[in-house]
Amino acid sequence: MKTKTLLSILVLFAAINSFAQVATPQKITLLFAGDVMMHDSQLAAAKQPNADAYNFEPAFALIKPLIEKYDLAFANLETTLGIKPYKGYPNFSSPPQLAVELQRTGFDVLVTANNHSVDKLGKGIDKTIEVLDSLGIPHTGTFINPAVRDTTYPLLIEHNGFRLALLNYTYGTNGIAIPAPRVVNLIDTLQIQADIDKAIKLAPDMVIAMMHWGDEYKESPNTVQQKLATMMTQRGVNLVIGSHPHVLQPMTWTRDSIQNHLVVYSLGNFISGQRTIPRDGAAVVGVELTKTLNNCEISDVHYHLTYVHYPVIGGIRHFMVVPVSLVETTPEMPAPGGAGWGRLWNYAVGARAVMKKNINVPEKIND
Question: Do you know which InterPro entries this protein is assigned to (predicted)?
Fold first, then answer.
């Protein structure tokens, strides 16, 4: 009798302990960056004396510590890779070293559906995918053929016990026809609805849609963006992250007893050669997810302002992504090249004016 009682107690204790472990909240942090562009001026800054050698490490050295603090980091790769000659606007192609450095900086996932996806035609799509695959960087948005899209899309990302389904679309490809059999995900509401339904069947904790949309250089979303965002969140998308306008647009975190979703209309230029304010800066948005048992929710959202500093060092113009708050809160930080911070202050004032329209998404000063 005593043995049975002891066994029952042990079984009950094990069950309680197992439940407690399962019920312990799990957390993961995500970071999203906007447009990664490479204009001619940036390529010239990274070019090394040796043939085909490029060094992009200085471009991301100051932002790297921030990116690395997040469990998963995503960005929009707005250039093709590996097609020579390497060029900027209007038909972008960058050396594979760019993807290598993005990975070293802490970016884990890249999306490739944007208006420059077809800049180097079919070879550009193929080579970009080849480069990313060779580095083991998960990606989505462009595909070598429909069969690959059918079997790999939506992209399912599994990390730290979380399952994330990633979607990616662009409004167009600058009028360049998509060369068959390649596929570039275009914004089509019926297709997006079908893809969302397919994503939900994968039983993810969150569905994320990274959208290339909106009007260039406009600091407010247009009606198409707003309607698409509403449709996607009502259909089951939890995070809608926008790019393309090359400037910041507001962010809205809707959280009440019924809804919990985030819409970021535009993150701006994470890095580019565009120097006209406000195109010379951006924001990265941080998201915390918390999962308990079978329930996963967005538990925190914030943003960091970033700026593309471009000092002349040793007679060469450089392009460096800088966290704005790092400069503001670290007076002793040596200014690379010793000049140019005045433009950062001007950018920050304008960016914060736009971000005042955010709903439930505050700025985080340092991390």
Answer: Capsule_synth_CapA, CW_Biosynth-Accessory, Metallo-depent_PP-like
Q: Is residue 125 part of a domain?
A: yes
Q: 4 in a domain, yes or no?
A: no
* Residue 362 included in any domain: no
Distances (CA, A) of 82 to 20, 34, 50, 64, 182: 50, 21, 17, 24, 17
Closest by Cα among 20, 87, 89, 10 to 269: 89
Q: Any idea what the CATH number is for the domain that residue 260 is in? A: 3.60.21.10
226 is a domain residue: yes
Q: Which two tokens stand for residue 34?
A: 């906007």
Domain count, the chain: 1
Q: What is the pLDDT along the chain (367 residues), one digit of tens a residue?
A: 445 555 455 444 554 454 444 568 999 999 999 999 999 999 999 999 987 899 999 999 999 999 999 999 999 999 999 999 999 999 999 999 999 999 999 999 999 999 999 999 999 999 999 999 999 999 999 999 999 999 999 999 999 999 999 999 999 999 999 999 999 999 999 999 999 999 999 999 999 999 999 999 999 999 999 999 999 999 999 999 999 999 999 999 999 888 999 999 999 999 999 999 999 999 999 999 999 988 999 999 999 999 999 888 888 888 999 999 998 887 666 555 455 678 898 999 999 999 999 999 999 986 6
Distance from C-alpha of 48 to C-alpha of 364, rounded to nearest angstrom: 36
Angle at 317 between CA 316 and CA 318, to 5 degrees: 110
d(CA 163, CA 329): 36
Is 107:63 a contact under the CB 8 Å cutoff?
Answer: no
Please choose, from the candidates 176, 177, 174, 170, the residue with its C-alpha nearest in 3D space to the C-alpha of residue 192: 170
The CA distance from 137 to 98, in Å, is 12
Look up residue 300 and give its amino acid. D
CA distances (Å), origin 112, targets 45, 200, 219, 355: 24, 22, 23, 26
User: What is the extent of the structural domain holding 321?
Assistant: 26-356
Taking the CA atoms of the chain, what radius of gyration do you get in angstroms? 22
- Which of 137, 147, 112, 142 lies closest to 35, judged by CA? 112
Cα pseudo-dihedral 152, 155, 156, 162, rounded to 10? 170
